[in-house]
Specification:
There is one protein chain. This protein has helices at about 5-35, 60-85, 90-105, 110-115, 120-140, 150-170, 175-185, 190-195, 200-220, 225-250, 255-270, 275-295, 305-315, 315-320, 330-360, 380-400, 405-425, 430-450, 460-480, 480-500, 505-530, 540-550, 555, 560-565, 570-580, 585-600, 610-625, 635-655, 660-680, 685-705, 710-735, 740-755, 755-770. It is mainly α. The longest helix is centred in the middle third of the chain and has 31 residues, at about 330-360.
């Protein structure tokens, strides 16, 4: 830095300036501290500038409105001049007027663009384009009125489209001419087809050619992007015409050629444009119909669906193999087209086999009638079976190519089962061959469900559902004959037992197999009983044998022991229901059920079933005594009660912690309950007296020994006997009392209880604690 001062002078000057700054800073700091010590003073608010009214519209928006309104008014004036005032001028005047105005409107945008008035130029250009349309109308009205209007409109639309496109390229600053030219270019070929009275296929060709021109323009001309939606719409319309004509006249070559050309156009667009997979999708669908339509001239035969399916699967090959030479948009579009057709074919085939499966239900109306029911087969059952099997194979292939996805495997299992299960019926096989084949398919589906898989269980669940549906269908179908029923149920029982014993299988599948095994075994026993001349009430012992076998094999069931034993309740309940009409058979059924429960209660983890066994044995005893007409049941129950009480006494001596209910409850109940039931129906006084004395003795003994079972059972029996003895007098007394007295007494009782509720609650707790201390 160069200064005229010497270093000493400059240094002195700097020190002086710094001293002045320090002094000023000290003064301002002291002033600030003094102001902060003053009381708070409201600061004056800054003046608010007056608010200006908000502008609702921008300058450019107002300009556009004015220009648009001006263009509209000029267009209205031109229309009025052309349509209304045209006849007041001569030929020369008309031509001169229109030519001058049109040329002026088309030339004016160029100087406007040079001056930067783009919006004004667009408005004037729009007016000029409209005037060209009026020129075309004037030419037809004056010099070409004899020409067909549709044909002239087609030619005029083509000429105007070309002129407008050239005008747009001549003035690249204008945005309107090219989109308007694209819109006009949509009419020449379709109008020409209509003017020539072409058939629907000819109109489709016109639409397809126009769509091709649009798409070519959109791909080659950067400013012709408006041609994309127009080309797509016309292409879809052309394909729709081809689909309709192909369905109306299967086997015709004209619609097939139109669809083939549309397919080529769609694939070509997808090949050039990376994101145009929808074009390949439409092209793929058109290709399927174009190739398969002529191959299947008879739509009513059903073979048209397999033909279309074959072509659709061929379309998915580029996507399946992932050919690097095929663009991704083409692969995706063709794959989606093929999958769509495959899904429709699979749905059609599944809908066709539903009546076949439902026809089996007719057998339920005439079981073992040995008549073959009518089956609602499709027109061509072989076509349905082939469609199901082919779609199943395609789904299986997709499952191998897409291992993380479970859906293809599930579809393969369902479609494959449907095809294999219904194919024998659709092909008209004999009944025996049909049942054998369907049993085999059901077993295979069950084995597939039992196959362990490290991944998801979607395939296993689907296979299990198919196996369950197939087994039920086969079982219903087998009811048409006696031998078929026994063989089918026997095979299903064996297959279920094998599945339950298959250790590597998943737990849920093995549990389901175990439950089904018990169910099929029960159905087999019922069928065998029905084959014999045994009365229905005596079917109970064989049914109880099913539950007994399940319980006896309990340790061998392994992990599926619980569901198997739970399922064994069903045959026991069925046995009791069938034996209920006959008391002798019911007593035997109850005893057998008690044996089953007692057998299970032998194991340490099933001790609680001992109570069920005791209840069943007691019920069997009562029913047996009732069936035998015994008037003094005590003669049969006391010989059971006395040894039971001795066993209970020994049990209490060896195990003082054992409950009195376990030691004495069963023995006492075996006599007290039947005797009480007999006493309530006995008109004499001897039995109630003896039962009352015995109950009183048991109650006192229980209170003295602090044993809950004798105390409660004896007290309850004594109260029931007393109520039985007092019942006639109570009824007599109540009949003699006024009608209002019982409600009044009940109300007073409720008031008394409510008033002493807390005390009564405390007494109830004490009574419960006292019973809890009993043995």
């Amino acid at each position: 830095m160069n200064t005229p001062l010497s270093p000493a002078e400059e240094l002195a000057l700097i020190d002086g300036e710094l001293a002045l700054l320090d002094a000023r800073r000290a003064h301002l700091t002291a002033r600030r501290d003094w102001l902060l010590r003053l009381p708070p003073i409201p600061w004056p608010s800054a003046p608010v500038p007056p608010s200006l009214p908000a502008k609702d519209a921008s300058g450019r928006g107002a300009q556009n409105v004015l220009l648009t309104l001006g263009a509209v008014l000029l267009s209205v004036a031109a229309l009025a001049f052309t349509l209304v005032s045209w006849g007041s001028l001569g030929i020369a005047g008309r031509a001169a007027a229109l030519a001058v105005v049109t040329v002026g409107a088309l030339v004016a945008p160029q100087p406007l663009l040079r001056r930067g008035l783009r919006s004004t130029a667009e408005s004037v250009a729009a007016l000029g384009l409209l005037l060209t349309v009026l020129d075309a109308y004037a030419v037809h009205a004056v010099g070409m009125s004899t020409v067909d209007g549709t044909a002239y409109a087609a030619g005029a639309a083509g000429v105007l489209a070309a002129l407008w496109a050239g005008y747009g390229f001549a003035l690249p600053g204008l945005r309107l001419p090219l989109p308007v030219a694209v819109a006009a270019a949509q009419f020449p070929l379709p109008l020409a087809a209509l003017a020539s009275a072409a058939d629907p296929v000819g109109l489709g060709w016109a639409l397809l050619a126009t769509a091709a021109l649009d798409l070519v323009a959109a791909m080659t001309v950067p400013r012709a992007q408006a041609a994309w939606p127009a080309g797509a719409a016309l292409g879809v319309a052309a394909l729709a015409v081809g689909f309709a004509e192909s369905a109306a006249g299967p086997g015709a070559s004209a619609p097939a050629l139109l669809l083939a050309a549309g397919a080529a156009l769609g694939v070509a667009v997808a090949w050039r444009v990376p994101g145009a997979s929808a074009a390949a999708l439409a092209g793929g669908l058109a290709a399927v119909v174009a190739v398969a339509g002529p191959l299947s001239p008879g739509w009513d035969t059903g073979w048209a669906v397999p033909a279309h399916l074959a072509v659709a699967l061929a379309l998915t090959l580029p996507a399946a193999v992932g050919a690097a030479s095929v663009p991704g948009a083409v692969r995706r579009g063709l794959a989606r087209a093929g999958l769509g057709v495959t899904a429709v074919a699979a749905f059609w085939a599944l809908a066709s086999v539903v009546p076949v499966l439902a026809a089996r239900l007719r057998v339920l109306g005439e079981v073992w009638a040995a008549t073959t029911p009518e089956v609602d087969r499709p027109a061509t059952g072989a076509a349905v079976a082939v469609t199901l099997l082919v779609t199943a194979g395609a789904a299986a292939t997709a499952a191998r190519l897409l291992p993380p996805r479970p859906e293809p495997g599930v579809l393969a299992a369902v479609l494959g089962w449907a095809g294999l299960f219904t194919a024998p019926v659709l092909l008209g096989f004999p009944v025996a061959a049909v049942l054998a084949a369907q049993l085999s398919v059901t077993v295979v589906a069950g084995a597939l469900a039992l196959r362990p898989r490290p991944g998801g269980s979607g395939l296993g669940i689907a296979a299990a559902g198919c196996a369950l549906l197939g087994a039920g269908n086969v079982a219903v179908g087998a009811l048409d004959g006696r031998s078929a029923t026994v063989l089918a149920l026997g095979a299903l029982t064996a297959a279920g037992a094998a599945g339950a014993a298959y250790r590597p299988g998943p737990g849920w599948a093995r549990a389901g197999a175990a439950v089904l095994t018990v169910g099929w075994a029960t159905a087999l026993v019922v069928a065998l009983c029905a084959l014999s001349d045994l009365a229905v009430v005596w079917w109970a012992p064989p049914l109880s044998a099913v539950a007994a076998a399940v319980v006896a094999l309990g340790p061998r069931w392994g992990a599926v022991r619980v569901p198997a034993e739970a399922a064994s309740i069903a045959p026991v309940v069925l046995a009791l229901a069938l034996a209920a009409p006959d008391r002798s058979a019911l007593a035997l059924a109850l005893a057998l059920a008690g044996v089953v429960c007692a057998t299970a209660a032998v194991r340490a983890d099933r001790r609680r079933l001992g109570w069920a066994a005791w209840a069943l044995f007691v019920a069997a005893t009562w029913v047996r005594l009732s069936a035998s007409g015994v008037a003094w049941p005590e003669a049969y129950t006391l010989p059971v009660t006395l040894p039971a009480l001795v066993v209970g006494f020994v049990r209490r001596r060896r195990d003082p912690a054992a409950s009195s209910w376990t030691a004495y409850g069963p023995g006492l109940a075996a006599t007290l309950l039947p005797a009480l039931i007999a006493a309530w129906g006995d008109p004499h006084w001897q039995r109630p007296l003896l039962l009352g004395l015995a109950s009183l003795a048991l109650t006192l003994l229980g209170a003295h020994r602090r044993l809950r079972a004798p105390l409660l059972l004896g007290g309850a029996t004594l109260a029931a006997v007393a109520l039985h003895e007092l019942a006639p007098y109570v009824v007599q007394a109540v009949g003699a009392l006024p009608r209002w007295l019982p409600p009044a007494l009940a109300g007073l009782l409720l008031l008394a209880v409510g008033a002493t509720y807390e005390a009564r609650l405390r007494d109830a707790r004490r009574l419960r604690a006292a019973f809890g201390r009993l043995g």
